Amino acid sequence: MNAPTHERLLIIDFGSQVTQLIARRLRELNIYCEIFPFQKVTVTFLQEYRPKAIIFSGGPASVYEDDAPKPPPEVFDLKVPILGICYGQQIMMHMLGGIVERGRGTAEFGRAYVKSSEERLTLLDGWFDETREQVWMSHGDHVSAIAPGFRVYGTSEHAPFAITAEISRQFYGVQFHPEVHHTRNGLKLFKNFVRIAGFCGDWTMRAYRQKAISAIRDQVGNKKVLCGISGGVDSSVAAVLIHEAIGEQLTCVFVDHGLLRKGEADEVVAMFKENYKIPLIYVQEKELFLNALKGLSDPEIKRKAIGGLFIDVFQKIADGIDGVEFLAQGTLYPDIIESVSFSGGPSATIKSHHNVGGLPEKMNLKLIEPLRELFKDEVRALGNELGLPKSFVGRHPFPGPGLAIRCPGEITRKKLEILREADAVYIDQIRKHGLYDKIWQAFAALLPMKTVGVMGDGRTYDYACLLRAVTSVDGMTADYYPFSHEFLSETATRITNEVKGINRVTYDLTSKPPGTIELE
Ligand code: XMP
Q: What is the DSSP letter of 330?
């Protein structure tokens, strides 16, 4: 293991869906941290890694399961502060002599309120300005007796030991999740924790850039890299970063799979050529993709088919360039967490994001994904750090499988044509009203149903379209954008008047969760 160049905090992952949010919150505080699955954290690992503090993540297991995930007991002898979150608190209590009980009737999911004990805890500086604090809980089991030396500093209705600490050893345990936005003062808790641990906060996007560049150089050596770009900010940032690391050894490929938005192919090629001196190969593969998608309507099958074809196309191009051994992609952390567990742990698959779950098992190219630990807003910060044009960095995300996942059910060329027109009118409206930069992502989708309408004096039987616009910080959670009624009715009128094939317009009011941003 290399000698650390930054003070570092170790996050031990026990399989929570939101472990990466812990890292995110810490990075907001300029703390360098890394997540390792609990299986990798051995005694030797701990001795070599020398963390300045440790956080135990949450996780879906129960401490009483036969193979319940555990850290090595020696972790408690390192003399560094430890914060256990949810399952992390339970396993800490269990290993140090406390008792954890199964949740029968006391499970808590979602918003809860914690009350402070008489005695105040430095970890909670800035908390309890009101009598109670809003936190976000997600637990079945709970601690029912604390380990020797611990004291209670906060309780909730169903978690009598919601906040516990053993001050002399600086061990802290919380039953709720301070890493999610719904825990109102979660960031303050992390801030206090790293202050207690003595961090000075020396981690910045500039530091990330340098670390990523040297990691790319080490991984690639003198081989060549092919980078798939989509015109979105992720793949462009990945390409520019890799170019900075290895220069001429990089070639970019842009595939028109027939699932792009109106005018997008020309825009992307022009934008890339104007802004960068990186060789770009533009391939037209509409027929290949659209023929392969014929008859497919299941969302996962569609996603995997597209992912598979992308790889075939990349492989064919790579075979034509001497020395290409790597395929680079702008995969982000949320793409991974919803496709496979980042840590190899037991978190559930929500969707196979095309650049992750769609990869065929046997691929001759090795993957480079320099953004796989970042969230969208961090990629934008990295884009700014790398000097990408502002208009480019601010583009709304566009998914790799493109319009295929905005056209639920079977895709046809006709449906795609209608959808492209509706989307173009919608985005035009958003721009005209000066709303583009206030919205995290907006798009039209074509619903797989026809309804009856009346236009002029005639009956219509056409498609219904759905408009989606969300606000979000990182794509992990999202809320619908509160357009004015005037905006919505003006847009609906424009779409039904200007787009042949649509006679009904709906606006999607679903947040994420329970919905996802895309329809499939
Ligand atoms: P969901 O629909 O999962 O989307 O809430 C979260 C964000 O990810 C984008 N997305 C993708 N991006 N490949 C990508 O590059 C994909 O397969 C993919 N699926 C969803 C989506 O547009 C949103 O910004």
A: -
